[in-house]
Amino acid sequence: MPPDDPRDDAPDDDLEPVEVPFERLTPAALRGLVEEFVTRDGTDYGVREASLEAKIASVVRQVERREVRIFFDPATRTTNLVRATDVARGGASVRSRR
Questions:
Q1: What are phi and psi of 42, to 5 degrees?
Q2: What is the DSSP letter of 57?
C-alpha cells in the first residue's frame, strides 16, 4: 500500500490484541514502552514514591521475568503492559482503552 493510501488510517476493530515478545524489541524501544507506561496518569506505586529510573528498572525486570507481558492493540494502535497472572486468569483486558 502506498504511504498516502487512506485505508492505512482505518482502525482494525476486527483484529484482536497480539502479544509482542520483549526479545523482539530493541533495548531502547522496550525502555520507551515502559517509560510511557510508568508515566501514565493513574499509575500508583503505593506509599513510597520511587524515582522514574527505579520505576522503569522495576517494570523492565518484570517484563524480562515474564511477570508482565506486552500487547499491541491494532484497534487502538496502542501498546499495553499486562500482568501475566491477569492474562492467565482472564481477569484483565489486554485491549487498550480508547
A1: 90, 0
A2: H
Chain centroid offset of residue 21 CA? 11
Candidates 16, 36, 40, 10; CA nearest to 93 is 16
Which amino acid is it at 7?
A: R
pTM (2 decimals)?
Answer: 0.74
- 94 is a domain residue: no
Would you say residue 26 lies in a domain?
yes
The total number of structural domains in the chain stands at: 1
pLDDT in tens, 78-89: 999 999 988 877
Tell me the three cell numbers of residue 73. Answer: 492493540
CATH of the domain at 56: 1.10.10.610
